[in-house]
Design brief:
The chain is 40% helix and 17% strand. The chain is α/β, with parallel strands linked by helices. It has a 6-stranded mixed sheet, with helices on both faces. It has a 3-stranded antiparallel sheet with strand order 7-8-9, with helices on both faces. The structure holds adenosine-5'-diphosphate and the ligand Cc1ncc(COP(=O)(O)OP(=O)(O)O)c(N)n1. Ligand LCLJCK34 binds next to strand 1, helix 1 and helix 7. It comes from Streptoalloteichus tenebrarius (strain ATCC 17920 / DSM 40477 / JCM 4838 / CBS 697.72 / NBRC 16177 / NCIMB 11028 / NRRL B-12390 / A12253. 1 / ISP 5477) (Streptomyces tenebrarius).
Length: 288
């Protein structure tokens, strides 16, 4: 196997999600995050969006047989070390993806699966489909995922607890509903930071909010980074801390001159940051 720049064998990661033509979020953000962390990106597109930094104007489904063919093409050829699942607004796609991943010849349980259930974008556009899609995500993805990474509003909707704003209680409800672990992003909008419940213990992930208005793609970047770190063998609480660090820095260093709405994050600048790259190197040294 050809080693990467650090001497490790190539780690291939798969993202299953939808396209953002403005380049900040969706599959495009995932490929950038995988690449920034030195991994090889593979992609299965389930939908197209017409969107930019100000919002989503239109969505279009990739036909189901084409989704199935893409999954088969990648999974029968490339040994993926991590899977990230992003925007899937069609219940049929949710079922198909869950079916293919759980029916793999090589058990995918050995491979971390991070599900980022996108329901509303930072620009305020609904992107997760209707209640049927939410029900399908609950039924098919909660038990499949190593960890799910909803933001606070998405977690409330998935848990069916609209008035509850305590992330610990929402996360516990999601585990009751079948999730193995829940990482609620931006769980404390007043102070910043995330909240991890690993099914047994709660781990607050402290953070500070940056007021740069560069949040477009923060969630996609965060969940992709998390998938890579889990594939590299980090434990979930450590991976959650580091993924937040990278995402928060990507917001801080975001592309303020791109677009007129919520500007895109910059994951490459984040991992180039001396403090972030030192922390990544320290944790990744000695793991696969
Ligand atoms: N303004 C911000 N400043 C610092 N970190 C942020 C900011 N916005 C989001 N993050 C971090 O980025 C990651 C993704 O969070 P979030 O924006 O909630 O995702 P989503 O795009 O799914 O709503 C989390 O780790 C969160 O704490
Ligand atoms: C195609 C597509 N997928 C996901 C998102 C959501 O991206 P996210 O990283 O949560 O950031 P925001 O869009 O909420 O800023 C998306 N917009 N498009």
């Amino acid at each position: 196997m050809r080693p990467d720049a650090t001497g490790r064998p190539t780690l291939a990661c798969l993202t299953i999600g939808s396209s953002d033509p403005s380049g900040g979020a969706g599959i495009q953000a995932d490929v950038k995050a995988f690449s920034a962390l030195g991994t090889y990106a593979t992609t299965v597109l389930v939908g197209l969006t017409a969107q930019n930094t100000t919002g989503v104007s239109r969505v279009h489904d990739v036909p189901l047989p084409m989704v199935a063919a893409q999954l088969d093409a990648v999974l029968t050829d490339v040994a993926v070390g991590a899977v990230k699942i992003g925007t899937t607004w069609s219940p049929d796609v949710v079922e198909l993806v869950a079916d293919r991943l759980s029916g793999l010849a090589v058990p995918i349980v050995a491979v971390p699966i991070v599900v980022d259930p996108v329901l509303v974008t930072a620009s305020g556009s609904a992107l997760g489909g209707g209640q049927e899609a939410v029900t399908a995500v609950r039924r098919c993805f909660l038990p499949l995922a190593t960890v799910i990474t909803p933001n606070l509003g998405e977690a409330q909707r998935l848990a069916g607890t609209p008035g509850e704003d305590d992330p610990a209680r929402i996360a516990e409800r999601l585990v009751d509903l079948g999730a193995r672990a829940v990482l609620i992003t931006d769980a404390r909008p007043d102070t910043g930071g995330d909240w991890l419940f690993d099914g047994e213990r709660h781990h607050p992930v402290p953070g500070r909010r940056h007021d740069t208005h560069c949040e477009h793609g923060a969630g996609c970047t965060h969940s992709s980074v998390l998938a890579v770190l889990l594939a590299r063998g980090l434990d979930l609480p450590t991976a959650a801390q580091l993924a937040h660090r990278v995402a928060a820095r990507a917001v801080e260093t975001g592309h303020r001159d791109v677009g007129s709405g919520r500007h895109p994050v910059d994951v490459f600048a984040a991992v180039r940051d001396a403090a972030v790259s030192k922390q990544l190197a320290e944790h990744l040294e000695g793991v696969r």
